[in-house]
Amino acid sequence: MDKIFTVTDLGDGLWEIADSVGCRCYLVKGSERVALVDSCVGVGDLRPVVEGLAGGLPVTVLLTHRHHDHIAGSYLFDDVRIPREEEVDLGVEEEQNLHARSFYVEQGRAPEGAFWAMSEGRRPNFSHFEEGDVLDLGGVTIEGYFLPGHTDHSMGYLLRERRLLLAGDAVTPCMCLFFPESLPIADWRQTLDKMGEMPFDTFRIGHYSHEFTKDDLRGFIVAADYALSGVRGLSWMYTYIEGLKGSLYISPETPTDDADSPDFRAVIGPYVPREHKRRRRRGTQGAAAGDGESGEER
Ligand SMILES: [Zn+2]
């Protein structure tokens, strides 16, 4: 593995920082302050990378939600904000981070003996950022919008002047709504409507290097409506938490079957057990085919 972080200059004071695991955070620079939206999974020392880009300006970390693969790097910073209602349990997230590390090393995505922020840094002293709160970076204004679904108080950060939304995991090609802290699919469907009304043209998310447009929301809405239509999903196992299952609904309009593609459209909701009495008709294709998928959060 050559290096842990890949930094991409997106122009006009915005950078994407991707770690070797595929988590992404975004550095936004104003004339007086920088904001780091999310902080990756904690592999490698993120702080010098951020400080190098910040050029001496103070850094505020804005977290989209509680999950360890977004908050771990914040253990290296002093000013860290998250919605109060996310009710982060750092003990739980640290445990999941430890568990995930062994997978990443095994898979060759993190080097053996790497620096891990949750071990090397210290628990952040969170302050809170609520819907409607504004952070002025000097010529760049960031505003918070709740985007509930993936977690109950996931937050999107709108870069007002740029009309760009940094959405974390609030809307992803394989939408994960199977966590205990996730909301029902119908609630996420409302978030998609809310996003349709918000003043942005494009959005970026936590695990893909891709700029989505507002028009892309339509494909997510089709996936949500399909999952809500009463069809039976495929049973799906989460790789990183033993026993955590979900039901996977692949949008009938997904243009690709490649679950890693930014064009993939699917929803993983809470696990719905099969109805054992229901007989499968001979020769029918559909949801039962390929049952038993597994994967990681995307
Ligand atoms: Zn997440």
TrEMBL record:
Location of the region described as Disordered in the Swiss-Prot/TrEMBL record: 255-298
Pfam families associated with the record: Lactamase_B
Domain Metallo-beta-lactamase: 22-207
Coiled-coil ranges from the UniProt annotation: none
PANTHER family, A to Z: METALLO BETA-LACTAMASE SUPERFAMILY LIPOPROTEIN (PTHR42951:SF22), METALLO-BETA-LACTAMASE DOMAIN-CONTAINING (PTHR42951)
Name this protein carries in UniProt: Metallo-beta-lactamase domain-containing protein
Phylogenetic placement of the source organism: Bacteria, Bacillati, Actinomycetota, Coriobacteriia, Coriobacteriales
